[in-house]
Amino acid sequence: MTARIALDLRMLVDPPDGISRYALELAGRLPLLMKDAELVTVGRADKIRRRLPQARVLEARTTSISLREQAELPALLYGHRVDLFHATLFVAPLVWHRPYVLTLHDVNYLALPQLYGRHRELYFQTAVRLFAKRAAAIVTVSEFSRVEIERRLGVPAERVEVIPNGIDPRFRPLDEAARGELLGRLGLPRDYLLYVGSFAPHKNVPLLLRAYARLADAPTLVLCGQGPDRIRPEIERLGLQNRVRLLQGQGDEALVALYSGATAFVFPSLYEGFGLPPLEAMACGAPTIVSDAGSLPEVTGGAALTFPVHDDAALAEQIQALLDSPQKRTELAAAGRRRAEKFRWEACVEQVAGVYRRLL
C-alpha cells in the first residue's frame, strides 16, 4: 500500500519568506524523489497552487498557533488516511497517533521574549516543547539551532538532525545589462546598499538605519520586504527620508537583480536559525555584511564581514570599509559565491526524504 505523506504549507506568504520557501522546495521536489509514496499538502489551495499547480491539497483554513487548528488538523489527516505528517513550521496536531516530523527553524520566541510577548514564549515553553517530545523525528537547519533547541526546549541534541537549507540555482550574478531594465523600473540608482527581509523586531533594521545615518556620503539604502511601512517612523526620526528607498517584497526575478546590483548587502539580525537572504545575496555576487548573532557566522562561513550585533558604529565602519575598497568588494563577492555553492535544495530534500523513509 502506498504511504501518504502530508506537508504543512499553511504558513505560505507571497513572495515567500524563508520558511515558506523551505516548505515549497520540499513540496515541489519530494514527489520526484519518493515515487513510491503519495505527497499531499495542507493549506489554502489557492495559495499553494499559485506556486505548485499540480499539488494535491488538503484544504485547511486555520492558521498556526490557534485552538481551531488542533481540531482541523487531526480531522484532515485522519480523514485522508495520512501515514506521516511533516510539521514544517513548528506546529503539530496534539490528537494524532501516527508519526510526524517536526522542523524547528529556530526558537527566537524563547531567545527574545521581550520582542514578542509572554504569550509566544509560553506557547513555545508548553505546546512546542510537547510537540518536540512527541515527534518521531526533529529537523533543524543549523548547528546553532540544534544547540538552542537543546538549551531552551530540553531536547537532547542527538534527537535533532541538522539539514541545512539550500539556494535555488536562479540566484546567480546578473550582468549590468540583464539587471538594468528591472532595476530601472524600480527607479533605483546605479549604486545602492541593500537589505532584504522582514521588518520583524528581531531583524534589527533600526540598528542598520542608525549605522547608515553615520555615513553621510553612502549611496542610497534600499530596504526590501513585506510591510515596509512599519519601519517608516524610524526613517523619519533619523531624517533619512531622502536617502532610504522602501520596496515591498519582490519575487525571485527582481531579487536576483537587486542582489546582483547591490554595492553591498547588509543583514543585521539579532537572531537567525539559518538566514537565507545573506546566502542568496552571496550567490548573486553581492559583498555581504552580517551580524555576529545566531547562525549567521556559521552559515556565511567566513565569506561575509561581521560586526557585533548591537554596535551600529562597528556596522558603519564595515560598510565604509567596503565602500572605500573595490578590491575588498571583489574578493568578498568571490568568496561569497564559493560559499553559497555549498548549499543546494537537492541535498536538503534528499536528506529529508531519508528521514521519511526511516519512519515509514
Find the count of extended strands (DSSP E, 2+ residues): 13
Query: How does the helix and strand content classify structurally?
Result: alpha/beta
Order of helices and strands: EHEHEHEEHHHEHEHEHEHEHEHEHEHHH
Q: What's the pLDDT, averaged over the residues?
A: 94
pLDDT below 50 for ≥5 consecutive residues: which ranges?
Answer: none
The CATH class of the largest domain turns out to be Alpha Beta
Architecture of the largest domain, CATH level 2? Answer: 3-Layer(aba) Sandwich
Counting structural domains, the number is 2
**Percentage of residues assigned to helices:** 40-55%
Q: What sort of overall outline do the alpha carbons produce when their principal axes are compared?
A: globular
The named CATH superfamily of the largest domain: Glycogen Phosphorylase B
| Number of helices, counting only DSSP H or I runs of 4 residues or more | 16
The main pleated sheet reads as: 7 strands, parallel
Order of neighbouring strands in the sheet with most strands: 3-2-1-4-5-6-7
What is the CA-based Rg, rounded?
21 Å
Provide the CATH topology of the largest domain.
Rossmann fold
What distance lies between the first and last C-alpha atoms, to the nearest angstrom?
A: 11 Å
Strand residue content: 15-25%
